[in-house]
Amino acid sequence: MAEERIVSTFMHRVLVGSPKGHTSAPMRPKTVPEKMSIIRSHVYPYSITLASFLASLLLPMIALNYDGSLTNFISTIDAASFWENLPKPSYEAAAVFFGWAIFQGLLLELVPGKTIYGPITPAGERPSYVDNGIPCWLITHGLWLFLGPITGLVPFGRLYDMWGSVIATGNVFALPFCLFLYWKGRTFPSSRDAYVSGFRMFDFFQGVELHPRLFGLNVKQLLNCRVSMNGWSLAFLCMAQAQFDRGTLSSGIIVSSALLVAYLFKFFWWEAGYFASIDIIHDRCGYYIMWGVLCFVPSVYCAPAYFLVEHPTNWSVPTAVALFSVGIGSLVCNYVADLQRQSFRSTHGECKIWGRKPKMITAKYTTTDGK
User: Fold this and answer.
1) CA 302 to CA 5: how far, in whole Å?
2) Cα–Cα distance between 228 and 100 in angstroms, integer?
3) DSSP assignment of 254-316, as one string?
4) What phi, psi does 129 have (nearest 5°)?
5) CB 68 within 8 A of CB 310
6) In this structure, what DSSP letter does residue 234 have?
7) Of 25, 102, 210, 363, which shows the fewest CB atoms inside 10 Å?
């Protein structure tokens, strides 16, 4: 009996994320049969999964070996060159990928921050998060600055050379991880916000759980925000370092990297508001969002910096300043819009936006437990 209790407690701490001392059996997800066409239930999830997986590998290959030209790729590709240039997993890339994820997980767990709560879920629960985004951002980028540009102890520019392998390694991990999340949602859900539609591929693609936890950490906050967003920022800086190591640092990559880092600093400044966005309150943890943050973001979102390393764009100082100013202006507009939305929600409409009290649409709803 003692061994069973130990195993049960361990499973809850790791897979369910139950509070200390809670060892009851997890609730099984509800089966909510949905009427959907075969296109939505099978064709769409199968085709998007396959197409996105292939695209994540082809994009860095085309950027590196075919000057970013899809026409050049199609007109010159053959079986031998395709296999030779196709990004492949490596042990070095695995060390980078998993080391980065573990580092961000430790920061999320260990850096102090107050507990904040998201909106009420369809099942009537409120997911919790740790509000330590800015300290974690400062530690991450401070370490990069010290270990890279200042001391040169870590050759961060090497990331460019292994970028394709990092993405391939990410795919090797992400696909089984999404299967694991599907299994976890069906057997060890972290909350009552878990349901299955009756279509396995659709549930794998969409996800079963809304707010899963692993080792007590909120999976969405860890992977969406910390691993993916901080990784996106550092990837741009590492690509700029790679170009500098090759003897130049173009104004194009300086402006691009500076705007991206500023955008993501703004993201972490506003992270509490992100937990009330569609990504968090509606999208479930399946292939769609989890593979997206682990593979699509590094492959597609980081493509501009990856391309610029070997294709430097040098603008005049006035042009670079003008483009940077336009970019900063866009970020300010984006931040103000987010701030207005967050202010409206936190005050229940008792605020002023552009000098006037905003109009609020009052809607009634019923949670899945009937409340």
Assistant:
1) 46
2) 10
3) HHHHHHHHHHHHHHHHTHHHHTTSHHHHT--SSIIIIIIIIIIIIIIITHHHHHHHHS-----
4) -140, 165
5) no
6) H
7) 363
Q: C-alpha distances in angstroms, 206 versus 267, 325, 330?
A: 25, 39, 32
Instruction: Tell me the pLDDT band of 206, cut-offs 50, 70 and 90.
Output: very high
**pLDDT per residue as tens digits for the range 42-51:** 898 999 999 9
Please tell me the predicted confidence (pLDDT) of residue 20: 44
Contact 293, 238 (CB under 8 A): no
Treating both helix axes as pointing N-terminal to C-terminal, what angle do 303-310 and 44-65 enclose, rounded to 10 degrees?
Answer: 20
Instruction: Give the DSSP H or E segment for 140.
Output: helix 133-145
The alpha carbon dihedral of 309, 312, 316, 322 has a sign of negative
CA 339 to chain centre: 21
Nearest to 259 by CA among 354, 191, 182, 327: 327
Q: State the amino acid at position 234 in one-letter form.
A: L
More confident residue, 319 or 359: 319
Angle at 126 between CA 122 and CA 127, to 5 degrees: 110
pLDDT tens per residue, range 319-346: 999 999 999 999 999 888 888 887 887 7
- Kindly report the CA angle at 104 between 99 and 107, in degrees rounded to 5? 125
CB 57 within 8 A of CB 87: yes
Q: Which is it for the CA torsion 320, 325, 328, 330, positive or negative?
A: negative
Q: Is the pLDDT of residue 7 over 70?
A: no
Query: Is 119 within 8 Å of 273 (Cβ atoms)?
Result: no
CB 185 within 8 A of CB 210: no
The model carries a pTM of 0.88
* One-letter amino acid for residue 30 of the chain: K
Cβ neighbours for 367, distance < 8 A, ≥ 6 positions apart = 120, 121, 122, 123, 124
Task: Pick left, alpha or beta for residue 362 (phi over 0 → left; psi -120 to 50 → alpha; otherwise beta).
Answer: beta
Q: What is the number of other CB atoms lying within 10 angstroms of the CB of residue 109? A: 13
38 contact partners, CB below 8 Å, separation of at least 6:
none
**Rounded to an integer, what distance in angstroms lies between the CA atom of residue 311 and that of residue 69?**
12
